[in-house]
Amino acid sequence: MNFHDKKEIPPKYIYLFMTVICFILLFFSVVFKNRFAPLQTVTSAIITPMQSGINEVGSSLYNRMVQHKDKNALLKENQELTAKLDEYSAEIKKYEQENYELKRLQDLLQLQEQYVSYNTIGARVIATDSTNWFHTFVIDKGTEDGVQVGCNILADGGLAGIVTEVGKNYAKVRAIIDDNSSVSATISGTDSLCTVSGDLSAIKEGYINVGYINKEVSVEDGAELVTSHVSNKFLPGLLIGYISEVQMDANNLTQSAKCLPVVDFKNLQEVLVILDLKANYKTDSESKNIYDSIQNTTSEADDSTETTASESDTAEDMSTETDTSEENSTQKETSEATSEVSTEATTANDSGDEE
Amino acid sequence: MKRSITIGIIIVVCFLLQSTVFHFLELAGVVPNLLLIVTMSFGLMRGRREGLLVGFFSGLLIDIFFGSILGPYAFIYMTLGYGNGFFHRIYYVEDVLLPMTMITLNDLIYNVIVYIVFFLMRNRLDFPTYFVDVILPEMIYTILITLFFYKILVRINLRLKRVKEAEQL
CATH code at B36? Predict the structure, then answer.
């Protein structure tokens, strides 16, 4: 690329040539998907370590800045939280008793334990989309750590996104608030299905859209939205957010609503990757593959109340869950739980939140 | 050779900044478009050829990391770099108004194209909302950053020029 050669090709031709290259790239990447993986691997091998380095420095500076600025606010929050903690420990006592009773009744009914504990690993967000139009981010775990395309990503105890592309030491994640994202969901407590789709203009106001709710179903504000059993990409029962502003659509056949996601996408620093894929998800030993489990979904949905009930194992789990969920939702910046602890916490969260 | 290496480093550094640190400095939920500033600057300072090459590689980097397919961003950035090259004729070092006008236009065109290609095609017709929510904040933020960043790039360019001249003598 010597720009001052005597015999220069006119820029016009270079432009044409490069345009052709662009379109060839475009064509090939559409026709032969994943053929450009080597190119991406090479680039990311160079860029990703730098990204994680810079990001580490940046986030530590940012955290320090936030810590200094909000010291008073944190103190106040701490007071409030301590008060809340007392409140919750009383509540836990109540649940403990109920849980014990539940266990006893379950033993009586000999219900099958359908809860599958997922394998998870913690990961760090090292880069976020450099355009302002999309919500994708890159995490620092890749195929080496067992991450695959289609892995679900959790953060703050809720669903954050799905892996769309994976390299050796990185994975690209599409957040559920991305304009291209849509997730099949269930409103907890009902069996009705709906679709949660990200919307760029909606997320600027802090929510995502929920559509195609059956008009027969009456939904209350604040109802929990969890991933449904019928999705072939998202594992069932992951918390998405809370519903508000339900309204009838113009077609008078469906309802739509807004959903406040539980994940704080603005300050996403650590996430949890579920290594199990939905495609390999088995509800019980009888269903051999995804098709069986799809066929089973109707019966599953009927059993859902029992399932969720059996999910929370012991009272100890419950207490961890309450503690950490509180911590997660309020002190995201400061809480840096180790992956193990958060694994436990989030699985417990999922189970607990469904109730 | 020195020149292309320096420019390569500038592009990579800007991409890294844009995708990592600047997200901590978000204003109104947007980050400034540093790579567009680089593309615009080199287009203005060095003409069409370099503008389009810088644009192409900047865009390709975005495509590789954040695009689902390769090509679209590379093409948009390249075209903008090439277009800016036409204004190389009326460029002089001390001028501030020209780069400011150019970055405003560039960012507007860039975002409108992105909107048309990635959003309008999917039947998202509410352009005014997108304009107010995304395009306008990004334009303003990018213009603000350009005020400082452009100066640095001009200085780097002058240095490169001097090194080149010294080598030739």
Answer: 1.10.1760
Distances, alpha carbon A214 to alpha carbons A187, A232, A244, A249, A256, in Å: 11, 21, 16, 10, 9
Q: How confident is the model at residue B100 (pLDDT cuts 50, 70, 90)?
A: very high
A37 touches B at CB < 8 Å:
no
- Express each pLDDT in A137-179 by its tens digit: 999 888 888 899 999 998 887 889 999 988 888 899 999 998 8
Identify the closest residue of chain A to B58 by CA–CA distance. Answer: A130
Q: Give the range of the structural domain holding residue B129, as residue numbers without chain letter.
A: 2-23+32-164
Task: Select from A126, A204, A217 the least CA-distant residue to A169.
Answer: A126
Q: Do the chains contact at A43 and B1, CB–CB below 8 Å?
A: no
Residue of A nearest to B117 (CA): A133
Tell me what ipTM this predicted complex has: 0.83
User: Shortest CA distance to A263 belongs to which of A349, A172, A192?
Assistant: A349
Whether B52 has a pLDDT exceeding 60, the answer reads: yes
Residues B149 and B34: beta-carbon distance below 8 Å: yes
Q: Which domains does chain A have, with CATH numbers?
A: 11-51 (no CATH), 112-180+263-353 (2.40.10.340)
Interface test with A, best of B10, B19, B88, B157 (most A CBs within 10 A): B19
The whole model's pTM is what?
0.69
